[in-house]
Amino acid sequence: MLLTLDLHDPRPLHEQVAEAIRRAVAEGSYAPGDRLPPARDMAAALGVNANTVLRALRELRDEGVLEFRRGRGVSILSRPDPRSVIEEKLRALLAEAVQYGYRHDDVIELIRELS
């Protein structure tokens, strides 16, 4: 699993980790039943605290994307709803646009121009 975080992203790191895992599952890098690497390994690869990764994993468990099994680790339970993946990306886009001084209407107009 190749996950990356954007240190300039204003969102908390655990949200970025959860989004990266959600995206990997939605894109098919992981299928239901596949096991994730241990949280410590993911944390080391991302350069964050293991508790940050664990918080993201718990969030995904609560969404029904992951399943925790004692002695077996964390595995993919289901693919996330595609709409929720798109909504997460749009929230990130809108937050970044606001940082550059764009209003939501400006972003909508840009999307219309590109489609």
UniProtKB/TrEMBL annotation:
Keywords: DNA-binding, Transcription, Transcription regulation. Coiled coil: none annotated. PROSITE patterns: HTH_GNTR. GO terms for molecular function: DNA binding; DNA-binding transcription factor activity. Residues 11-79 form the HTH gntR-type domain. PANTHER family: GNTR-FAMILY TRANSCRIPTIONAL REGULATOR, HTH-TYPE TRANSCRIPTIONAL REPRESSOR YTRA. This is GntR family transcriptional regulator. It comes from Streptosporangium becharense.
